[in-house]
Automatic annotation (TrEMBL), chains A, B:
Domain Creatinase N-terminal: 8-138
GO MF terms, alphabetically ordered: aminopeptidase activity
Annotated InterPro entries: Creatin/AminoP/Spt16_N, Creatinase/aminopeptidase-like, Creatinase_N, Pept_M24, Peptidase_M24B
Organism: Streptomyces levis
PANTHER family per UniProt: AMINOPEPTIDASE, CYTOPLASMIC PEPTIDASE PEPQ-RELATED
CDD domains: APP-like
Name the record gives this protein: Aminopeptidase P family protein
Length: 368, 368
């Protein structure tokens, strides 16, 4: 694995050098993880002029399955001193003779940035922008295979829930049970707080579980994901509780399903992100659901649950092969509930069979 | 409740006005929650020259038990536009005729700060420092009562775990079971990721649960907490698995217990934070455990799990009455394990009975 991290750091170094910085300071945890193999709590990565160093705080605890790249020097700040690894890294960069340090201005706070400037006054602080985030967009097959396993785990957890009795149980208990099942099946943990929404809550994006109990006739929408070796995935499904869905439920479900399918089918290398969004959105739009739609119909996913690219009306850029994204349109009718259908897929060329669906739980409307 | 939030905002306004700023922008979520009664995802609070406004993003989901102060105007940004509530708030501040806006430089990133400056060029951006964090240090009885309930919930969850069979179960499963029990007993959720550490892991501060199984003869250390109405608490205990602890286990336990008691007993209004730290630390120091001690032996707790004050050798400042803190010394022997004992207490004058212990689970060394 070490060559993978070294190659990623080389790409970033080339980018920085082209921008006139001999050194870069990476502080955003997912970016540190991507370049160093592990992101102990609070650690930063110095891409130095003469040497790369992972600078860790005194209580640099990390998930047990993460190991820093062995080719990397690891420096741990002494316990009693406290101190900010980013500040220590700036000092090291200056000591290596760099005159400019590119930093993540979208992650460093104003106060930390100022502390960097104070400790290393001879260093010009430049902006690294979202360079590491951009490197992270296209995944290698090793990364995708972690996401595939995570998706299998989420599918399993969801499948088991559907076999249990649901009526009378609260949203919060169902969410906790799903999270326990994720871990039972080998996940590092949930990829994000599991959302279970019943009745009038169903279909609300990002709904946080409440003490409402599942009732006959409810829509039930569930959104969950597993983290596996740091990589995340996301699946959302909506069900009906009881023997048979009502007509309005079938209609709404079919509509959201059609929108989600349109989004999925437009996932081809070279497609504009906004066109994927439009494909899904216009199905809902043309049925009169223009209000209350979410700003995104999908987004990239990987070491974080919400990455570039964004699938939205204002999104710039095109999709590449090997970019995992979610497609997750939905409709929520205030007071009545709604439907959300969410998959994680990997963009693949048509010659390779088109988009690879990672989350394979059925999207038929099940009555439970 | 509305008067409470209004009074808090008034105190902050007076502080800002004294510093020469007519307006303040509060962006750190726990600070928004403290002043506005709720912190919907991404929301910021403008303490304006003419009016206070809670500015929310389009997907401003919030825990169902939080309600924004009704005396506060709430402005929600339109969905499709996306946009940063902090930037919108700066625009509103300038529109109200403020010439200076105090912002949380320890929370705003460099990039967001720059965006604020661009949208409101006539506004001088000043620093609010940790003013809200300082207001939050001393709790009112309403806040303490939420913490007391949270501590009861954590005690219950821990007590139930101790009655179950532990040998053979993994750290991760025990941690998940504790978190489920917290929610069963009415917590909003865990106050922080539950730590369960067995055998050689026991006593490691901030240990993340692994797949290691509990074995006879292990030390087992557990650290958990409940969030109740937004307020957090923390309890840590160490047990021995099997019929009787070994001599070295009893010795180490007694030592850490003595250190923790010394820390607790020094919690009086007016005590210097560093003296509380020293009281606990010197018990371990004088027994020869100088290496590997954590930077803190305790910290404030409230809307966040780790607040001011810090109990550390370099800490400035004194304790006031009605300040909840943890006291949590520990020793970890690499390869063998260790002991950590952690309580949440409220500083009270001696006339009121001295420090109020919120987490009441026994600190006898139990063999389970």
């Amino acid at each position: 694995m070490s060559e993978v991290y070294a190659a990623r750091r080389t790409r970033l170094r080339e980018y920085c050098n082209a921008g006139g910085s001999a050194a870069a300071l990476v502080s955003r945890p997912a970016n540190v993880r991507y370049l160093a193999g592990a992101a102990p709590h609070g650690a930063v990565l110095l891409l130095g002029k003469t040497e790369d160093i992972l600078v860790c705080g005194p209580s640099a605890d990390r998930p047990s399955q993460e190991r820093p790249d062995e080719a990397l020097r690891v420096q741990t700040l002494p316990g009693a001193a406290g101190g900010d690894p980013a500040v220590a890294a700036a000092d090291l960069a200056q000591g290596q003779g760099a005159d400019s340090l590119a930093v993540e201005e979208h992650h460093l706070t104003v106060a930390r940035h100022r502390a960097l400037g104070s400790v290393a006054p001879r260093l010009r602080l430049a902006g690294l922008g979202g360079a590491v985030e951009q490197l992270r967009v296209v995944k290698d097959e090793e990364e995708i295979s972690c996401m595939r396993i995570g998706a299998e785990i989420a599918d399993q957890a969801l499948g088991e829930l559907l076999e249990s009795i649901l009526v009378g149980r609260t949203e919060r208990h169902l969410a906790l049970e799903l999270e326990r099942r994720l871990v039972d099946h080998g996940a590092d943990g949930p990829a994000f707080p599991t959302s279970v929404a019943t009745g009038p809550n169903a279909g609300r994006p990002g709904h946080r579980p409440t003490d409402r109990r599942v009732e006959e006739g409810d829509f039930l929408s569930v959104c969950l994901g597993a983290t596996y070796r740091g990589y995340r995935c996301e699946i959302g499904r909506t069900f009906v509780i009881g023997t048979a869905p009502a007509d309005w439920q079938i209609e709404l479900y079919d509509l959201v399903f059609a929108a989600q399918r349109a989004g999925r089918e437009s996932l081809v290398p070279g497609a504009a992100c906004r066109d994927v969004d439009r494909a899904a959105r216009q199905v809902l739009d043309s049925a009169g659901y223009t209000e209350g739609l979410t700003a995104l119909t999908g987004h990239g996913v990987g070491l974080e649950i919400d990455e570039d690219p964004q699938l939205s009306p204002a999104a710039m850029g095109k999709l590449d092969a090997c970019v995992p994204v979610t497609v997750e349109p939905g409709v929520h009718l205030p007071g009545r509930g709604g439907v959300r259908i969410d998959d994680t897929l990997v963009v693949r060329p048509e010659a390779d069979g088109g988009p690879e669906l990672l989350t394979i739980t059925t999207k038929e409307l099940l009555a439970l």
